[in-house]
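It is time I had a proper look at our fold encoding. Can you supply me with one protein entry, sequence and fold together? It will help me judge whether the discrete encoding reads sensibly. Leave the record below and I will have a look:
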Amino acid sequence: MPRSKRVHMGLAVALGAVGVGGGLAMAVPLTWPGEWSFDVPPSLAVSEARAVKAAAAVPVDLAEVRRQTLKTLSERPTDATAWARLAWVASEEGDIEGTREALDKSYVAAPYGPEITAWRLRFAFGMWGRLTPEIRRQALSELSMTAETRPRLIQDVRADVVDPAGRWAIDLTLSGRP
């Protein structure tokens, strides 16, 4: 074998050995879990899923729903769905002020949904007489915007609202629309 081929072969083997050695040197700490940790934030999906599970339980575990929802909000304070869930919990507990405050924060976080729109409109128009003028204004604004973009959804929402004042508000808001 000529000398230049041996040199090239030797360099290739040396480079391969360095690559394998470096890979092993980086992999060895992974086998020592007490010394290695990932910098990963806690999963918000866990507290969100636990809140939904507690809300779906029979009977509903309102304390657990509240606790898991507050945990979600501590990490994501602009989560409109979590604020709406907290409004529902407060409503179920008979806390109208808590309901108003959480519903208002839901509107501040995401005034036009979209993923929370149907539920939030049903909830807001279902308790229309107990809402503040500001929350009513926000709900009417969401209703008007949704009527433009998803008119079928509005008809479904109206059909589900049992509060006569809420149905009347929907009808008056939509009366001038084609």
